[in-house]
Amino acid sequence: MSNVAKVKIQGLYGLPTTQTPVTAAVLETVAAYFRRHRGRVLGLTGAGVSVPSGIPDYRGSSGTYRVHGHYRPILHHELVSQHASRQRYWARSFFGIRPAFHAEPNAIHRAFVSLERTEHLAGLITQNVDGLHLTAGSTNVLELHGTLKNVQCLSCKQIESRDSFQGILETLNPGWTEFHRSMARSGVEPARRPDGDVDLPPELRYEGFAYPKCRQCHTGDYMPTVVFFGGNVSDAVRSQSHRMVDDASALFVCGTSLATFSAYRLVKQAREQGKEIMVVNFGETRGDKEATAKLEAAAEDILPHVATMLAQEFGCP
Questions:
Q1: Sheet strands side by side (includes 141-143)
Q2: Which of the residues are catalytic?
C-alpha cells in the first residue's frame, strides 16, 4: 500500500452508535473531575472543537475523509521537494485561507478560557492549526501541529505572516485574484478542508499558479508553519508536550479521535503515569481503552455548561 493510501484511510474510527444523555448528573460528573484536579487538568483538543466555528474536520460524521473518499492530502516530502506540489498547495490555499482567518472562537473555546481563569485548567495542547484557542483568550496553549498564521522559508527559516504572504500571492496571480473576488460577489465559495485547502473551481488549473521565493535569502521556498502529513513534530514541541503531561494530574481529551500518534502518545503517557483521563467526543477514539471515563457527546453540549457552573462557584462572571 502506498503512503498516500495509508494517509487517506488513517484514523477512520467508528461513528457513534449511542449518545450520552447530557443530564445534570453528567454535567456534575465533569465538574467534579475539574474540582478534583483543580489547577492540574491538561486539555488535549482536536478538530471537533472548531467545527462549530465553521471549520470542517477530517474524521467526523461529515469529515473530509468520510464524505470525500478520493481526497488526497499533500504530504510533507512532496511539499518540500516538488514544485508542482507547492503550486497545488498554494493555489488551493489561495481560496481557502481567508475564510479560515475569518473564523471566530465558539462556546467551547470560550469555555476553556473560563476554566483557565477559574484556575481549573493548567493548559492546553491542541492539534488544531487555526489559532482559535489563542484568539479566544487562552494563554498557556501548545499548538502541537503548528499554526496556519505564518509561513517559513525552507532554506533560511525566515518567517512571514500568512496574511502578508497572501497579499504577495494576489499580486503574482491577478487573474486568480479577480476570479476569487467574482466568486465572493456571487456568494459562491469552494468546499473547504480543515487546513485551509479547497477544491479548485474547474475553470482554474494550478499549473499556472505563481508563488514567490523567500524575500530574505531569495532562493528558498516557503511552506506553512504546520506539520503536514508525513512530517514530524519538532523535538522542542514534542518535549514540551511530554512535560505538560508530566506536570498535570489529569488529562481532558476533547473533540478528537486521536488518530495522529503525536496526540495519542500523550494519552498513553498519561495512562502509564496513572492519571485520570476523561474523553468527551462524539464517536470512537484511538484512546478509548486508556480513558478513565468516556462521554459519547459533542463538546459544545457539555463544556460550556460545566465552565459556567464552576465560574459561578468561584464568583467569576
A1: 141-143, 121-126, 41-45, 250-254, 276-280, 293-295
A2: 145
pLDDT digits (tens, 9 = 90+) for 98-124: 777 788 999 999 999 999 999 999 999
Q: What is the pLDDT of residues 36-54, one digit of tens each?
A: 999 999 999 999 999 999 8
Which positions of the chain have pLDDT values less than 70? 1-17, 57-72, 188-202, 317
Q: How far apart are CA 141 and CA 120, in angstroms?
A: 15
pTM to 2 decimals? 0.87
The residue assigned the cell 486521536 is 258
User: Using N-to-C axis directions, what is the helix angle for 235-247 and 261-272, rounded to 10°?
Assistant: 30
Q: What nine digits make up the cell of 141? A: 496553549
Spatial separation of the C-alpha atoms in residues 161 and 57, rounded to whole Å: 24
